Amino acid sequence: MKQTSFTDIEYSFRKKKTKREEFLEIMDEIIPWDEWVGIIEPYYPKGKRGRPPMGIEKMLRMYLLQIWFNLSDPATEDAIYDSYAMRKFTGIDFVKESVPDETTLCKFRHLLEEHGLNKLFFDAITRVMVQTGHMMKGGTIVDATIIDAPSSTKNADKARDPEMHQTKKGNEWRFGMKCHVGVDAGSGLVHTITVTPANRHDITQAASLIREDDEVVYGDSGYLGIQKRSEIKENEHFASIDFRIARRPKSLPKVSDNAFDWERYIEHRKASVRCKVEHVFRIIKCQFGYKKVRYRGLKKNENRLYAMFACANLYSLAIAGQTLAAG
């Protein structure tokens, strides 16, 4: 049994919990710790030589704090020393131990990146959600969002990240990468992710985001003409899908004031389903603060996105009052 410290007693008399503490309590309850630790364990150092390694769960908790609050390695270490809520979440007792330093966290992060373990977390969560009935079948919403990257060349290489590219959205030029997602049309939970440079068109990744059992696919006007693409026409299943793609407003015919505008009504119904994809983007960009890439290269950022979307799916269930244990 964990011993209660004087700090814990003092904090227990507070009249209000911070939003950070409430968020961490939710995540502490819904993350499948034993399963994720089991995924990491075969790749983690055994400690047969040299100093014994830090506990896997402790390092995993520290790493998740880093991605949820968009912190660098040294900032994560400092934040745990500074924040009672973060220290409580990691389970670190300052009387007996100190916070793992930034180098230890960096090595742990590289371990996850090298073996693609965050994708295994995401796949495991998706599989359980399908089994428990939280993630439905038959329909997918496809969409993409741009994650900005530093465009400055004031660095050692005197150059931008070669894996990132610029693209024009509206009247604004953006530099970075693009995250493409396939979202379950019934629940709004993400089931597939791909990452490309920002200049890659949304429609090129659509086939990779569609599931084998999908009968309907929703998308914005960026996916117009998807039925004509070779990867769709040449696939028997994809060719039979009902693609409900939003039309551009200028293409809709004008109607008289006395007539019911069926065209716009249909577009409104499409949008009411398609808007679910924006909820998960909000969690990633606003809740987790991932509006700009943290690392150079697509692979490292893709690995981070898998962990964030796995947590975003769990968080979406939690705030809806559901758990994975419920069928």
Rg: 23 Å
Helix content: 40-55%
Listing every helix as H and every strand as E from the N terminus to the C terminus, the arrangement reads: HHHHHHHHEEEEHEHHEHHH
Mean pLDDT: 89
> Could you give the count of β-strands?
6
Count of DSSP H/I helices: 14
Low-pLDDT segments, ≥5 res: none
Query: In this structure, how is the largest beta sheet organized?
Result: 6 strands, mixed
In the residues, how many domains can be counted? 2
The N- to C-terminal Cα distance equals 32 Å
Strand proportion, as a percent range, falls in 5-15%
| Class computed from helices, strands and strand pairing | alpha/beta
- Shape from CA axes? globular
Descriptive account of the structure:
The chain has 327 residues and is α/β, with parallel strands linked by helices. The protein has 2 domains: 16-115, no CATH class; 136-299. It is 44% helix and 13% strand. The protein is built from 14 helices and 6 strands. Strands 1, 2, 3, 4, 5 and 6 form a 6-stranded mixed sheet that branches. Strand 2 and strand 3 (172-184) form a beta hairpin. The longest helix is centred in the C-terminal third of the chain and has 22 residues, at 298-319. The radius of gyration is 23 Å and the shape is globular. The mean pLDDT is 89.
Question: Main traits of this protein?
Answer:
six-stranded mixed sheet, 327 residues, alpha/beta, 2 domains
Reconstruct the topology from this structure.
Layout: H1 6-12, H2 19-30, H3 33-40, H4 56-68, H5 73-82, H6 84-90, H7 102-115, H8 117-131, E1 139-148, E2 165-169, E3 172-184, E4 190-197, H9 206-209, E5 216-219, H10 230-233, H11 236-239, E6 242-245, H12 262-274, H13 276-287, H14 298-319
Parallel strand pairs: 1-5, 5-6
Antiparallel strand pairs: 1-3, 2-3, 3-4
